């Protein structure tokens, strides 16, 4: 997770002066892919933490855009923006015993 967050941080710094909506759409795709891969049962704490860390990184980059951005971007405002653009973390993969439940057909050998 740390390596992915570091790469996202570097990419956000290069996208610092692009429009917020464009950056939000890019972040949605990145976070959605990461969540789909890691959305296994009993990992929901990590999923929520990842989305919070991405939101924190995005806030720090937005605050570095200009001197006025430091005061105007509060955590509450950033959470609203995050809810608008980033997917909500949820477990999408089933437990292994549910995934590999095989049924025997009658008459099959």
Compose a concise summary of this entry:
With 109 residues, the chain is mainly alpha-helical.
What can you see in these coordinates?
This protein has one domain. The chain has helices spanning 2-14, 20-38, 44-63, 69-72, 75-85, 96-99. It has 109 residues and is an all-alpha fold. It is elongated. It has six helices and no strands.
Fraction of residues in β-strands: under 5%
DSSP summary, beta strand count:
0
Number of domains: 1
Helix fraction bin: 55-70%
| Biggest sheet character | none
Rg (CA only): 19 Å
Shape: elongated
Specify the number of helices.
6
The ordered string of helix (H) and strand (E) elements is: HHHHHH
What would the average pLDDT be, to the nearest integer?
Answer: 87
- Report, as a whole number of angstroms, the end-to-end distance: 46 Å
Structural class: mainly alpha
Poorly predicted regions are none
How is this fold's topology laid out?
Layout lengths: L1 H13 L5 H19 L5 H20 L5 H4 L2 H11 L10 H4 L10
Helix pairs in contact: 1-3, 2-3
Descriptive terms for the model:
109 residues; 0% strand
């Amino acid at each position: 997770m740390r390596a992915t967050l570091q790469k996202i941080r570097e990419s956000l710094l290069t996208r610092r002066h692009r429009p917020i909506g464009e950056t939000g759409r890019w972040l949605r795709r990145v976070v959605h892919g990461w969540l789909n891969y890691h959305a296994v049962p009993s990992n929901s704490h990590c999923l929520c933490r990842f989305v919070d860390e991405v939101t924190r990184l995005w806030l720090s980059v937005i605050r570095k855009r200009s001197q006025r951005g430091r005061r105007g971007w509060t955590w509450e405002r950033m959470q609203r923006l995050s809810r608008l653009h980033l997917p909500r973390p949820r477990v999408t993969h089933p437990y292994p015993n549910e995934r590999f439940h095989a049924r025997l057909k009658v008459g099959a050998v």
